[in-house]
Amino acid sequence: MAPPDTADTTSERQAFNEEIKSLSAAPLWDQYHGVLTPEPEVKGVPHIWKWDGIREKMLRAGDLITAKEAERRVLMLENPAYAGEAKATETLFSGIQMILPGEVAPAHRHTPNALRLILEGSGGYTSVNGEKTFMEFGDYIITPNWCWHDHGNEGDEPVIWQDILDLPLVRSIGAIFHNPYPEDRFPAGPPEGDSLVRYGSNMVPAEGLAPDRLASPIFSYPYARSRETLEKLAKTTDLDPYHGLKMEFIDPTTGGAAMSSISTFLQRLPKGFKGERYQTTEGCIFTCLEGGGRAVVDAGGTETIIEFRPKDVFCVPCWHPFRLEADEDTYLFQGTDKVVQTKLGLWREKRGNA
Ligand code: GTQ
Ligand code: FE2
Predict the structure, then answer these.
(1) For the chain, which domains are there?
(2) Which of 68, 71, 74, 109 for mutating ligand 1's site (highest number of atoms within 8 Å of CB)?
(3) Rounded to the nearest whole angstrom, what is the distance from the C-alpha of residue 303 to the centroid of ligand 1?
(4) Tens of pLDDT, residues 282-291
(5) SS3 state at 82
(6) Whole-angstrom distance, CA of residue 164 vs CA of residue 187
(7) Is this prediction's pTM over 0.85?
(8) Per-residue pLDDT tens for 84-107?
(9) Nearest C-alpha to atom 6 of ligand 1 is from which residue?
(10) Which of 16, 50, 247, 330 is the most exposed place for a label (fewest CB within 10 A)?
(11) How many CB atoms are located within 10 Å of the residue 158 CB?
């Protein structure tokens, strides 16, 4: 049979597309290369949330709503390209949360994994399955999925921290569950700080661990310890040309990431550091704890320059080449989806221009 002429082809194909619509079907050939792009094409854009502006609004939110009424008094850090979608990157949610003195954020549990990075205030605590951990600046706390958690503030000033959850990832799978606990506080369990005492000294109980754990038994990674590690190593260790000095927070019982879906790192860039161009499929959320500098991100051919100072949060979406520079000795906390991508065989990186 002779091939039909072009005009006929077009109209016949259009008619065909209409016909199959009623079957909830569509022709892949119209979209093939849009769906299977040669390289990642994500909607997310590089963005920075400056601390001063966010902090001021956070304090105002304290006059508008109580932690209890809000369930969680959180200002979501939404990627401008994902407005209304509660996403900072393709897979991660981030927010800034505040608890005022005497307040309690009531106990609940949910399927997304969550972490906290403390930015301001003393006397705040998180309880995970009844184990309380008091939190200071820079401390990193995990609340693994389906663990009961509530927060409080026994100090006399607002406590403010950053949350990161794998909420968009879990939502894309569909598996969101959330339960309130019938009381504000989950009943007290192990003594305060128990998990760090028990598992934080290169030992585990001789009788072993529950076999089905997917997260670190340590809930709290105090900044004093991790910062000291990096500060000491900086004196003896060569810098990575892309990352400076970068360490990953782990589950000490497996050597893997602290939680099943969020990779976390602390990175030290010495004063004057000029990193080389780096590209990864990880969606990255950075928080500057000390120092300052810039991330230069290549966003589709145009350079976005992100100037960061302490407590600023910024993101670099999947497969956006970037480099980091530091004007002073700088400490960056980083949360990414590397662990998920690695498990799925998806994680990639590209160093330099090669
Ligand atoms: O503190 O438990 O930013 O459940 C979002 C959801 C924080 C929390 C968030 C949450 C929490
Ligand atoms: Fe929660």
Answers:
(1) 47-351 (2.60.120.10)
(2) 74
(3) 33
(4) 999 999 999 9
(5) helix
(6) 25
(7) yes
(8) 999 999 999 999 999 999 999 999
(9) 72
(10) 16
(11) 19
- Cβ-contact 298, 352 below 8 angstroms: no
Residues whose CB is less than 8 angstroms from the CB of residue 346 and which lie 6 or more positions away in sequence, other chains included: 281
- Ligand 1 atom with minimal separation from the 97 CA: 3
Distance between CA atoms of residues 217 and 210, nearest Å? 10
Would you say how long the chain is, in residues?
Answer: 354
Q: Which ligand is nearest to the CA of 126?
A: 1
Task: Give per-residue pLDDT as tens, 108-136.
Answer: 999 999 999 999 999 999 999 999 999 99
**Distance from residue 125's CA to the centre of ligand 2 (Å):** 14
Pairing of strands 313-316, 284-290: antiparallel
The tens digit of pLDDT for each residue in 38-82 reads 999 999 999 999 999 999 999 999 999 999 999 999 999 999 999
CA of 151 to the centre of ligand 2 (A): 9
